[in-house]
Amino acid sequence: MLKSRFGTGKRAAKSALDSFRVQIGATLPGRKFAIGGAGYMGLVPAVTEPGDVVAVIPSGSIPYILRMIDDTDTETDGVSRYRFVGDSYIHGMMYGEVLEIKGAGMKDILIV
Fold first, then answer.
1. Would strands 63-68 and 79-87 be described as parallel, antiparallel, or unpaired?
2. CA distance 59 to 85
3. What does the alpha-carbon distance between residue 36 and residue 42 come to, in Å, rounded to a whole number?
Protein backbone atom coordinates (compact mmCIF):
# COMPACT_ATOMS: atom_id res chain seq x y z
CA MET A 1 0.00 0.00 0.00
CA LEU A 2 1.27 3.49 -0.84
CA LYS A 3 2.20 5.49 2.21
CA SER A 4 3.38 9.05 1.69
CA ARG A 5 2.95 12.59 2.91
CA PHE A 6 -0.39 12.41 1.10
CA GLY A 7 -1.62 9.57 3.36
CA THR A 8 -2.38 6.02 2.25
CA GLY A 9 -4.61 4.28 -0.25
CA LYS A 10 -6.03 5.25 -3.64
CA ARG A 11 -6.77 8.86 -2.71
CA ALA A 12 -3.16 9.30 -1.60
CA ALA A 13 -1.88 7.75 -4.82
CA LYS A 14 -4.00 10.15 -6.89
CA SER A 15 -2.82 13.14 -4.85
CA ALA A 16 0.82 12.08 -5.21
CA LEU A 17 0.40 11.57 -8.96
CA ASP A 18 -1.31 14.94 -9.39
CA SER A 19 1.51 16.62 -7.46
CA PHE A 20 4.10 14.84 -9.61
CA ARG A 21 2.37 16.02 -12.80
CA VAL A 22 2.44 19.63 -11.57
CA GLN A 23 6.15 19.35 -10.73
CA ILE A 24 6.96 17.87 -14.15
CA GLY A 25 5.12 20.73 -15.86
CA ALA A 26 7.04 23.30 -13.83
CA THR A 27 10.41 21.60 -14.33
CA LEU A 28 10.08 20.61 -17.99
CA PRO A 29 8.09 23.23 -19.90
CA GLY A 30 6.44 21.86 -23.03
CA ARG A 31 6.27 18.34 -21.55
CA LYS A 32 3.75 16.47 -19.47
CA PHE A 33 3.70 13.21 -17.58
CA ALA A 34 1.61 10.46 -19.14
CA ILE A 35 0.62 6.89 -18.44
CA GLY A 36 -0.33 4.83 -21.48
CA GLY A 37 -3.02 2.19 -21.74
CA ALA A 38 -0.49 -0.58 -21.13
CA GLY A 39 0.82 1.17 -18.01
CA TYR A 40 4.01 2.62 -19.51
CA MET A 41 4.94 5.99 -17.99
CA GLY A 42 6.84 8.79 -19.60
CA LEU A 43 7.24 12.39 -20.66
CA VAL A 44 5.42 13.46 -23.80
CA PRO A 45 4.85 16.76 -25.63
CA ALA A 46 2.35 18.97 -23.79
CA VAL A 47 0.07 18.85 -26.86
CA THR A 48 -0.28 15.05 -26.66
CA GLU A 49 -3.92 13.94 -26.52
CA PRO A 50 -5.70 10.72 -25.55
CA GLY A 51 -5.65 8.43 -28.58
CA ASP A 52 -2.22 9.53 -29.81
CA VAL A 53 0.13 6.61 -30.38
CA VAL A 54 3.73 5.83 -29.53
CA ALA A 55 5.88 4.79 -32.48
CA VAL A 56 9.49 3.64 -32.60
CA ILE A 57 11.34 3.76 -35.89
CA PRO A 58 13.45 0.64 -36.49
CA SER A 59 17.02 1.17 -35.30
CA GLY A 60 15.84 4.28 -33.46
CA SER A 61 16.24 4.92 -29.77
CA ILE A 62 13.52 7.53 -29.24
CA PRO A 63 9.78 6.85 -29.16
CA TYR A 64 7.72 9.40 -31.08
CA ILE A 65 4.15 10.50 -30.49
CA LEU A 66 1.94 10.39 -33.58
CA ARG A 67 -1.69 11.40 -34.14
CA MET A 68 -3.81 9.52 -36.65
CA ILE A 69 -5.37 11.86 -39.19
CA ASP A 70 -9.11 11.81 -38.63
CA ASP A 71 -10.68 12.04 -42.04
CA THR A 72 -12.54 9.76 -44.43
CA ASP A 73 -9.38 9.00 -46.43
CA THR A 74 -7.22 7.74 -43.55
CA GLU A 75 -6.08 4.69 -45.49
CA THR A 76 -3.95 5.17 -48.60
CA ASP A 77 -2.99 1.87 -50.19
CA GLY A 78 -3.42 0.21 -46.79
CA VAL A 79 -1.06 2.67 -45.10
CA SER A 80 -2.38 4.68 -42.15
CA ARG A 81 -1.63 8.41 -42.15
CA TYR A 82 -0.36 10.20 -39.05
CA ARG A 83 0.78 13.66 -37.99
CA PHE A 84 4.02 14.02 -36.05
CA VAL A 85 3.39 15.35 -32.52
CA GLY A 86 6.90 15.11 -31.08
CA ASP A 87 9.51 12.99 -29.38
CA SER A 88 9.08 11.44 -25.96
CA TYR A 89 10.67 9.51 -23.14
CA ILE A 90 8.69 6.36 -22.36
CA HIS A 91 10.24 4.30 -19.60
CA GLY A 92 10.76 0.75 -20.87
CA MET A 93 10.57 1.71 -24.56
CA MET A 94 13.93 3.37 -25.04
CA TYR A 95 16.85 1.91 -26.95
CA GLY A 96 14.91 -0.78 -28.79
CA GLU A 97 13.30 -2.25 -25.68
CA VAL A 98 9.94 -1.88 -27.41
CA LEU A 99 10.83 -4.72 -29.76
CA GLU A 100 10.69 -7.06 -26.78
CA ILE A 101 7.16 -6.00 -25.78
CA LYS A 102 4.62 -8.73 -26.33
CA GLY A 103 2.12 -7.71 -29.00
CA ALA A 104 4.31 -4.94 -30.44
CA GLY A 105 4.56 -5.20 -34.20
CA MET A 106 5.78 -3.47 -37.30
CA LYS A 107 3.44 -1.48 -39.50
CA ASP A 108 3.96 0.76 -42.52
CA ILE A 109 2.67 4.28 -41.93
CA LEU A 110 2.76 7.62 -43.69
CA ILE A 111 3.63 10.75 -41.71
CA VAL A 112 2.13 13.86 -43.28
1. antiparallel
2. 20
3. 8
SS (H, E, C) the chain: CCEECCEEHHHHHHHHHHHHHHHHHHHCCCEEEEECCCCCEEEEECCCCCCCEEEECCCCCCEEEEEECCCCCCEECCEEEEEEEEECEECCCCCCHHHHCCCCCCCCEEEC
Write out pLDDT tens, residues 66-96.
999 865 555 556 778 899 999 998 888 876 6
* First-to-last C-alpha distance (Å) of the chain: 45
CA dihedral (66, 68, 73, 78) positive or negative: positive
Nearest Cα neighbor of 12 from 1, 26, 24, 23 is 1
Residues with Cβ within 8 Å of residue 96, at least 6 apart in sequence: 56, 59, 61
